[in-house]
Every structure is written in C-alpha cells, then in structure tokens.
Request: fold
Amino acid sequence: MPLQFLKPSISLCQGARMMFYAMTPNETAVRTLQEVPDYVQQATPFFIVMLVLEFFIGWVQKGWPPVRVNDGITSLSAGVLSRLPHVLIRSIELSAYVYVWNNFRVFELPWNSPWTWWLTFLGVDFGYYWLHRMAHEINIIWAAHQVHHSSEEYNLTTALRQSALQQFTSWIFYLPLALFIPPSVVAVHFQFNLLYQFWIHTKVISNLGPLELILNTPSHHRVHHGRNPYCIDANFGGALIIWDRIFGTFVLENDKVVYGITRPVNAFEPFWLQFHHYLYIWNSFWSTPGLGNKLSAIFKGPGWGPGKPRLGLREEVPKVTGKEVLYNLRLAASIQIYIIVHFILMLFIYQDMFETKATLSQIALLLRIGYIILTLTSTGFIMEQRQSAAILETVRCCIFLILHKVGYLKTLIVSLEVATENNFPPPQDKSCTEGPFLLSCWQSLLANVVILDPVLGNQLSMVNMFEVMEHLDSSNHNSIQFEML
Reply:
C-alpha cells in the first residue's frame, strides 16, 4: 500500500522558502514517517508560478519565449510519468531505508534535534552527489538518468523531465544514513533536496556572486547539462557545490553551453525517451565479444568501448559549434493549442488522483494511471507527427468518455458539467441513446479530436467523434478529412 502523507497547512511564505531549501528544523520536524508531508505534491502551484515567471522574464530578456511547446510538454510528461508509481507504492528509496533502519541501525539520533536536521541535510546531499556522479559513470544507471539530460533546451520544465526508473538504483547511496538517522528526518530532506534543484534549471539567472562558492546555482548546473566537451561529467552536486570542489569535478561556466546529450535522441514520445538507452545497452551487450566486455558494457561508462578507459575517451565527445539545429517538428498553432488544453485537462485528473488516492479503489487508480499514460503517449505521437496519431487520439477520447460515464473519471470543473443540449448534436446512431452524457460542454470539448492528415500536410480538422467512428467502421483509408464543425 502507498504511504499516505499528511496534507500540511503551508503558508505562502513557507511554500516559497520550501522551494529554496529554506525551511527551518522546527518547521519540518516530525516523529514518524507517516507524518511527513508530501512537500513535492504540495509544491505544484509553486512550480506553476515559477514556470510562468520564467516564461515572461525570458521573453522580455531574449525577445522570444524560453520554452517550446513540444519540448516543454515532453519534459512535463516525463515528470508526470516519474511520479505515477508513487500513487501505488512507497518510493524504493524510502522502503529500502526503512528496512535497514528497522533491522540494522546502530544508534538513533533524536528526530527533533536541529543537529540531526543539519547532519541529514549534509548527508543526503553527499549521498546525492555520489548517486548523481555514478549515474553518469555507470551505463545501466545512466540509462535511467539520461532522460533528464535529453532536452535540448534549459528551462524550468527541464527540471521536471525525470526518469521513472532511477529510484530503483538511487536507494543504495543513502543506506549508510539509515544506521543512525530516523526515516522521518531523511524523508523531509529527500524532498527538499529535489525541490531545491527545480529553480536552478534556468537561463534567466546569470550569477549569484559569493553564493556560487558554496551552493549549486543555475550557472553551475547549466554546465552540468551541457554537451560541450568541457561540460561532460562535471558539477554533480544537488544543493551544494562543495562536493564537486572537494572531489575534483567542478567546472566553471565558460563558453556558451549547448544543451542535451552528445547523441541527441530526437523524440517527444515519453516511453522511447525512458527506455531507448536500455535497448542500446541490450544491443551492445550481445554485439560485444567476451564476458568481461559484455559486463563492461553494462557497468562502465556510457562512452566505454573495448580497449578504451572506463569512462571512454574525452576526444571522442562530439564537438559543438553553437550552430546545432534543434529537433523541432513544426506544428500548426491550432494543434499546439489543442495539445496544451488537453494536457492541462489531464493534469487536473493527475492532481485529483494524488489528492484522493486514499479513497479510491485499486481499479480506479489503475484506470486513471492507464488513462494518463495513454494521454502522454498520444500527445507524443501528435508532436512527432506519426501517422497513427489520429487513431490513437480518437481511441483516447473515446476511452475518456467511457471512463467518465462509468464514474472512474470526473471533470473537476463544475461549470463544464452543465449539460448544454444545443451545443452538441446527438448521434445519428440510434443505439447511442445516452444523450445527456454527450451533451455537456466538457464532453463536447473532448469529443472533438485532432485528425492529423498524413497525406495533406498534417492539416487540422475538428471532427465529430461519431463521424470519426462511423468512418472508421466503413473505411480503411489512411487519409481522413471531415467538414469543419
């Protein structure tokens, strides 16, 4: 069963300070793990406010928006996907930590001591440094972490581009703390360390003066996200940069940073982003001769090859010119608006699922998770202009209507529940007699789907759902064009 976090009463001031790791020990000390607030979920409105601020500040500074719709939606999709397992189960990090604490702890520091709080702050950040460093130096861990680096942009949406699988290896690096620090204290710092790293994913902040000596800052982290040769395997710190200075991995921001991974993945579909490097490792394992080399393909660096050093050869890192062309398939403005609207509607379902998970049945949770995954996949297909995007999006909208009808999804916006019989014509098929179900403003919106015509240049048509289904029943044509409603 998932861990049920409490819903804290966080003031505006506390929420803002939470994003910068500026909460005090007295504010965050709790005795048991069950009392630890879900700070990450509570941070959602602050994520949104900071995203909007960055959007307008970046637009004023540069003259154009700092976020592309396709790249930004892809990053947000990865963030949503990474959080879905937490609906059903406690994080692997906490589960492993609690097991070691219950069975092997040597002594117990007081949970309400400021000294314990500050020691945990340092311990979690130190563990994160080595987790992060190994995620770049061990290929099988990099397979998960590369998701976070796959964006060719650098903005606050990039911070949310997270792996769904990294938690299955990250737990190892925090286990020494379980010998003496209570789980409730560590659970707080796991979240604060993660939240702190959100705001440093931006280009609108240049330099923070003396703070650059101690803290991880936007400037330091821009280097970490660069694919320039001088940026590779540098600046692994979470909240603090002192670990990089101590262990020789610190690099100052110098030349213009080009973002992304050295061999761009060129995709917007979330599952390919999550799993493509595992496929690469699989192919490398079977094509590499010798058992030792096969194991090296898994456990040495991503740049390793037979006869090369553990981390590969630095001179083989592709040079950058500053004129690299971003992967950016053009979409009509109307399609981009459609994607944004439906993504926001999905986020309402996502947020409500987390808020009400304690009251939902397992089947309801699984159906909501399945619908969210389907929405993310369909959105990726549309942004990649795949020929199957139209069919998948039609199926997705039909599934929403069905799940809403049987009560497994709700609209969350009361005004959209009001039936408007003149707004949407009833179906011609007399077997579909559930008129009121299809006559609300919300369902009218969802029953109009984007058809991406693969022959006629991905033209946008708003189509009646029943016309789509009727056509699909009577035709196998790939190209579908309907009269504009």
